[in-house]
């Protein structure tokens, strides 16, 4: 196992280097410059500023400088959004709110999604099943920002249960954005669990469990559930992506001082180092999630545990 | 002999989009204590459905009992609630399925799969249940059972998995063991081992077995009595010798003729022509009449009742009616009948025991 994880870590570093390289050159191809939007500067002043940030160096030099700093964990400093502040600090200080709504959304969505999917499968072709499917379709097809606005309108403006867009009331402020983020994992989990449960419930070992005298709930929870979870774990990765991309917009809508909000703003003002830093941060996060998913796989499915064991 | 299970006039239908499929159309048989009753027939003849209806394992929303009763221990199983059935399943009646590769839960260690029915049906501690499970594994011939308990199904071969399924089925010393084609998915050498094991175990724990198969070779090997099913009915029932050496129903003749044997000299193997009847609209008379070269006019119109051949042997064919014309069975069947005392072709000598 340790060797397996070690091998994976090396791949992770390689992947990150590739992502950093790719993003770096993409950023350089983009028109505009961080300084262009910074106000009216004379060409001489511009040249001075560009020189100060090393933007006049030849591209390969810039690239190697960047990668060298990155290897030491230095993501550079903000060029115009938070002039001079280290990007690492900016990201860390903004991580709290993002992590909170992301985590709440993911947990809420997955748990409710699994429950909905289970109930739908156990009550197949009844109104329960149809309404659960409907919720899943809505969750997949309505983008999170539309859903977020609806939540703001009904629960914020009309009912006044939660603040519309104010990050001051701690947990209360996080409820609506978490729900908005939860819709995607909820819908995904519900669909996957329903399909898989129905298939598992029709399998031979479920009939054998029945023939042993197991009751309906024992069959559903002791025998079917774990087997139905396996494909859901596969989509945990994409679900996390959904949360990440969703949070970019949702944070903007709910005025949450999170990474997503900062990311969007930094793109608008071309703050090169923040864009790079956030992209790399998101990538690290995702790659770690994928590793966790693979380890989870082994815990839930013994067949995979063993074949992974060959490399340990 | 003591009757342990009685199936009387059982009729069962599946409600499908296409209409009502009459899968079982009046099945009668008794199961005696300690015997092995084989149910043979081709796919779709209703043999699996019959046994699954005894266990009530058919989908509740589409399968429906139309008539008849299944008497076990003084109770009619068709009328029991789900809760009451759960107490019988796995304890008094247990089942072995066709495909051992899929009948074990892939994410549960086999030890827990064996102890599950024990803990469910007996007041016994987990540690004791574990001991019972280890003994069961030893009984079915699994080497190093203590180590094997923690392993998962994918770490066993097909034959070993079927041994585990057998161990599960025997966990509570059932009175009836239903084996639904338990050797069909296994290769021939493993088949033989599993059959030997089942015969051994039956002697040890004195259970009655209903053995479903379409393999007549297996029947000859394990069965005391044989019921031949066709089109949702039993068409002939008798001891294994009576069915193999004095068959009366044209369908049984067809089955026996299509079985290859060592002395079959002809290059071409006989096959019954035609296809099984459509049970959405079952034929009026004898369901086999349309495929039978021995069919009489009355076979098309009226369902034949059971005619008694001996105390243990009954067949549902109009050919046994006193007014029916004498017909000559196929040559291979006549060869068999020559060896059976009491058949009209008997030429003397002892009967070949089916085994």
UniProtKB/TrEMBL annotation, chain A:
Taxonomic path: Bacteria, Bacillati, Bacillota, Bacilli, Bacillales
Membrane topology type: Multi-pass membrane protein
Gene Ontology biological process terms in this record: transmembrane transport
Origin: domain of life: Bacteria
Family, per entry: Belongs to the binding-protein-dependent transport system permease family.
TM ranges: 9-30, 101-122, 134-155, 175-193, 229-254, 274-300
Swiss-Prot/TrEMBL keywords: Cell membrane, Membrane, Transmembrane, Transmembrane helix, Transport
PANTHER family: DIPEPTIDE TRANSPORT SYSTEM PERMEASE PROTEIN DPPB-RELATED
Name of the protein this chain belongs to: ABC transporter permease
Organism, scientific name: Planococcus glaciei
A GO term from the CC aspect: plasma membrane
Tagged with keyword Membrane: yes
Subcellular compartments: Cell membrane
Automatic annotation (TrEMBL), chain B:
Assigned GO CC terms: plasma membrane
UniProt subcellular location: Cell membrane
SMART domains xref list: AAA
Principal location: membrane
Alphabetical UniProt keywords: ATP-binding, Cell membrane, Membrane, Nucleotide-binding, Transport
Keyword Coiled coil: no
Similarity section: Belongs to the ABC transporter superfamily.
Record-given protein name: ABC transporter ATP-binding protein
The species this protein was found in: Planococcus glaciei
């Amino acid at each position: 196992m340790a060797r397996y994880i070690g091998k994976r870590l090396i791949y992770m570093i390689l992947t990150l280097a590739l992502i950093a390289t790719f993003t770096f050159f993409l950023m350089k191809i983009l028109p505009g410059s961080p300084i262009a939007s910074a106000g009216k500067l004379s060409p001489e002043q511009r040249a001075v500023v560009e020189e100060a940030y090393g933007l006049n160096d030849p591209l390969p030099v810039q690239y190697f400088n960047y990668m060298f700093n990155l290897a030491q964990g230095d993501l550079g400093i903000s060029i115009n959004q938070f002039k001079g502040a280290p990007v690492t600090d900016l990201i860390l200080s903004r991580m709290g709110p993002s992590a909170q709504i992301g985590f709440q959304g993911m947990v809420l969505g997955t748990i409710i999604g699994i429950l909905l999917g289970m109930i739908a499968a156990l009550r197949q072709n009844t109104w329960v099943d149809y309404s659960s499917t409907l919720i899943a379709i809505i969750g997949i097809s309505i983008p999170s920002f539309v859903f977020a606005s609806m939540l703001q309108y009904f629960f914020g403006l009309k009912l006044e249960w939660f603040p519309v867009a104010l990050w001051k009331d701690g947990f209360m402020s996080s409820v609506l954005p978490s729900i908005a983020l939860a819709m995607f994992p909820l819908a995904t989990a519900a669909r996957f669990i329903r399909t898989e449960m129905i298939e598992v419930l029709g399998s031979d070992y479920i009939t054998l469990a029945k023939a042993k005298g197991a009751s309906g709930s024992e069959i559903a929870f002791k025998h079917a559930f774990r087997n139905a979870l396996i494909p859901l774990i596969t989509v945990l990765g994409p679900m996390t992506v959904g949360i990440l991309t969703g949070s970019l917009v949702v944070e903007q809508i709910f005025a949450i001082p999170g990474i997503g909000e900062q990311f969007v703003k930094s793109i608008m003002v071309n703050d090169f180092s923040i864009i790079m830093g956030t992209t790399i941060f998101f990538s690290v996060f995702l790659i770690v999630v994928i590793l966790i998913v693979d380890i989870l796989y082994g815990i839930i499915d013994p067949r995979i545990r063993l074949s992974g064991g060959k490399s340990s | 002999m003591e009757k342990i299970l009685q199936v009387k006039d059982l009729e069962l239908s599946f409600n499908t989009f296409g209409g009502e499929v009459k899968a079982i159309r009046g099945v009668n048989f008794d199961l005696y204590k300690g015997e092995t009753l084989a149910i043979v027939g081709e796919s779709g003849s209703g043999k699996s459905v019959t046994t699954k209806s005894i266990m009530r394992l058919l989908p509740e929303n589409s399968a429906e009992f139309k008539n008849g009763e299944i008497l076990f221990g003084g109770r009619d199983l068709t009328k029991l609630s789900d809760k009451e059935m759960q107490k019988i399943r796995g304890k008094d009646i247990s089942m072995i399925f066709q495909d051992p590769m899929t009948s074990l839960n892939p994410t549960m260690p086999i030890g827990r799969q064996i102890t599950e029915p024990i803990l469910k049906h007996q007041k016994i501690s987990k540690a004791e249940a574990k001991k019972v499970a280890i003994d069961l594994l030893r009984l079915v011939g699994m080497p190093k059972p203590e180590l094997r308990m923690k392993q998962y199904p994918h770490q066993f071969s097909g034959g070993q998995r079927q041994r585990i399924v057998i161990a599960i089925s025997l966990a509570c010393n059932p009175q009836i063991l239903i084996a639904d084609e338990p050797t069909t998915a296994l290769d021939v050498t493993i088949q033989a081992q599993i059959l030997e094991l089942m015969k051994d175990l039956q002697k040890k724990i004195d259970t009655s077995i209903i053995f479903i198969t379409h393999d007549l070779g297996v029947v000859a090997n394990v069965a005391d009595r044989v019921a031949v099913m066709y089109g949702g009915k039993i068409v002939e029932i008798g001891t294994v010798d009576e069915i193999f050496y004095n068959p009366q129903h044209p369908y049984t003749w067809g089955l026996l003729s299509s079985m290859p044997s060592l002395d079959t000299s002809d290059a071409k193997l006989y096959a019954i022509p035609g296809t099984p009847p459509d049970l959405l609209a079952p034929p009026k008379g004898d369901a086999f009449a349309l495929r039978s070269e021995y069919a009489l006019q009355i076979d098309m119109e009226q369902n034949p009742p059971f005619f008694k051949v001996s105390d243990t042997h009954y067949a549902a064919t109009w050919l046994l009616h006193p007014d029916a014309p004498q017909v000559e069975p196929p040559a291979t069947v006549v060869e068999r009948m020559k060896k059976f005392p009491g058949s009209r072709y008997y030429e003397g000598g002892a009967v070949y025991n089916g085994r």
